[in-house]
Amino acid sequence: MNLHKILQTALPVALALGFAACATTKDIPAAGAAVGDALMGDWQGYRVLPSGTVLPLAVQLVTYGDDLYDATVLASFEQRDPDRFVVPLRKDGDALSTSSDPGFRATVKDGLITGSSPRGNIASFTLRKVQRLSPTLGAQPPAGAVVLFDGKDMSAWKVAGKEERPAAWKLVDGAMEVAPNGGTIVTKRQFGDCDLHLEFRTPFMPTKRGQERGNSGVYMQGRYEIQVLDSYGLTGEDNECGGIYKVAPPRVNMCAPPGQWQTYDISFRAPRFDANGNKIASASVTVRHNGVVIHQNLAIPGPTGGAVDERVTEPGGLCLQDHGNPVQYRNIWLVEPAGTTGR
Ligand code: MG
Question: Which of 101, 103, 109, 294 could bridge 118 with an S-S bond, Cβ 3.0-4.6 Å?
Fold first, then answer.
């Protein structure tokens, strides 16, 4: 069957399967291509087996610069996929090739990637670019919320560990951006239990790898880090985006491509101690990353690496890590339980 014929027969099935599968998926407007690289990002569609069976296909294209990419192939964007695999790709004009399959053919044209992979047992595949946006992007603080950054004013923050030294991060287009040597910053106000909303985006650093690629972090009470990292398209480890640093990996890697605004909605419960100071309950968190629960009532046994202090019986400020990369934050607010007074 030639490609045209396959497309004709497969398209109705594909519309029912891949292209309409994800409720939070939204087409990228022509002018809204991801920052830095037009191919980078989520692609969704279907593959046709030699038997004619049509299956959904989700691909994350990670860029490493110099026209080199990794294609992470998944059954679904929003579930951890034990069968995920990665295909290294090279782009040459409109053509994509891979050293892992000499028979692989793929073309980027009119917003679609189409091709075939004999070694992958795929007679044809068709992918269309999609952008999954968090349903909580732009969430407004409810009445009584503590607004920590409204896009203009960094006065709620100071440099961590240094009394009254103002936060030296940059204000860029309504965001706070980590500045070189600006230091990790912390709120002047201290908190116990709280529900936090914040938005962040990682910089486009295609030639960097691992912990050098868009690293920052959100420390509840300055002690418990929910990692911020450009780990788009990776497996989702405990030191990658959404990981409780070196404690627990996210249930699924919900990291968006660099340059795209993302959300953390974090319910934090501070540790509990009895009258003698003995711990009776660890700190715990429920974290939604871009709207998807990645940790549910997860106990954190103690402060994670890089914590600003170990005074776990006391309230603590919200901390944002300077790891030397220009990560941006915006729309930061939290809600404390009823009856909590400001500290
Ligand atoms: Mg970090």
Answer: 103
